[in-house]
TrEMBL record:
<feature type="binding site">
    <location>
        <begin position="6"/>
        <end position="13"/>
    </location>
    <ligand>
        <name>ATP</name>
    </ligand>
</feature>
<keyword id="KW-0547">Nucleotide-binding</keyword>
<keyword id="KW-0418">Kinase</keyword>
<feature type="binding site">
    <location>
        <position position="138"/>
    </location>
    <ligand>
        <name>ATP</name>
    </ligand>
</feature>
<keyword id="KW-0479">Metal-binding</keyword>
<keyword id="KW-0630">Potassium</keyword>
<feature type="active site" description="Proton acceptor">
    <location>
        <position position="115"/>
    </location>
</feature>
<keyword id="KW-0067">ATP-binding</keyword>
<dbReference type="InterPro" id="IPR004619">
    <property type="entry name" value="Type_III_PanK"/>
</dbReference>
<keyword id="KW-0963">Cytoplasm</keyword>
<dbReference type="InterPro" id="IPR043129">
    <property type="entry name" value="ATPase_NBD"/>
</dbReference>
<feature type="binding site">
    <location>
        <position position="190"/>
    </location>
    <ligand>
        <name>substrate</name>
    </ligand>
</feature>
<keyword id="KW-0808">Transferase</keyword>
<comment type="function">
    <text>Catalyzes the phosphorylation of pantothenate (Pan), the first step in CoA biosynthesis.</text>
</comment>
<comment type="pathway">
    <text>Cofactor biosynthesis; coenzyme A biosynthesis; CoA from (R)-pantothenate: step 1/5.</text>
</comment>
<feature type="binding site">
    <location>
        <position position="135"/>
    </location>
    <ligand>
        <name>K(+)</name>
    </ligand>
</feature>
<feature type="binding site">
    <location>
        <begin position="113"/>
        <end position="116"/>
    </location>
    <ligand>
        <name>substrate</name>
    </ligand>
</feature>
């Protein structure tokens, strides 16, 4: 089975796939979301992963391949050692030189985050192009795929969590509030006011950027959202109606399969 790891700045999302075979599509057997383990050693990571598997009644020995999308370079060496020591496989990291099937047409392709490439691979496989992927994580990224399946570029904005943290840390009299859809648009308490500003301000940011991108790409452009806040925000966005929480994991699976095909041909 394939273990897919999406290592983000705040959270790491893990998926276990039964790969596709002749006449049978790939299926996700299990998935987990954990806090990104900045301080843990490879041995501690090994214990963590074996515990996660055990809680689902799974044996870690069923893993025959690992695909990793990481935006936290200091963790990469530990993850490699984890895969080689505990799963006995050499992991496939999404990095320059890996076959993705997605031409990157930016000024400096090597600086594009692995997660952005993986998301676009999965989005184009599902929807074709032109497509925009909105990933709402620590940062909010907008990634544009052309009609031909090329990564054209995009935009990066602060995530909603970062925006909220900045507000609370710089305004002494404002307290932290739950980020959720407010019940009204004109607040009558400080908590209401903050929630309205965060929620609808964030929606305005997303719709504003999407509106301009769609105007340039054409009205047939599809938009798909992913990330921890996508489902919450999509309910009031004009342009974001499709959400896939597992978009990155499915992109990892697709890239892993394409690289296995290349090795088999060789």
């Amino acid at each position: 089975m394939l273990l897919a790891l999406d290592v983000g700045n705040s959270n790491t999302v893990i998926g276990l796939f039964n790969p596709a075979s002749e006449g049978t599509p790939a299926t996700m057997v299990a998935d987990w979301r954990i806090t990104t383990p900045y301080e843990q050693t490879p041995d501690e990571l090994g214990v963590l992963f074996r515990t996660l598997f055990s809680m689902r009644g799974l044996d870690a020995n069923i893993v025959t391949g690992v695909a990793v999308s990481s935006v936290v370079p200091p963790l990469d060496a530990g993850l490699r050692k984890l895969c080689e020591s505990y799963f006995k496989v050499k992991p496939l990291f999404i990095e320059p030189g890996v076959k993705t099937g997605l031409p990157v047409l930016t000024d400096n392709p090597s600086e594009v985050g692995a997660d952005r490439v993986v998301n676009c691979v999965a989005a184009f496989d599902q929807l074709g192009g032109p497509t925009i992927v909105v990933d709402m994580g620590t940062a909010t990224t907008f990634d544009v795929v052309s009609r031909k399946g090329e990564f054209l570029g995009g935009a990066i904005a602060p995530g909603l969590g970062i925006s909220a943290d900045a507000l609370f840390s710089r305004a002494a009299r404002l307290t932290r509030v739950e980020i959720k859809k407010p019940a009204k648009i004109i607040g009558t308490s400080t908590t209401d006011n903050i929630q309205i500003g965060l929620y609808y301000g964030y929606i305005g940011l997303i719709d504003g950027i999407l509106e301009r991108m769609i105007a340039e790409l054409g009205p047939e452009t599809k938009v798909i959202g992913t990330g921890g806040l996508a489902k919450l925000i999509s309910t009031d966005c004009k342009h974001l109606h499709r959400v896939d929480d597992m978009l990155t994991l499915n992109g990892l699976r697709l890239i892993w399969e394409r690289n296995q095909d290349r090795h088999r041909r060789r």
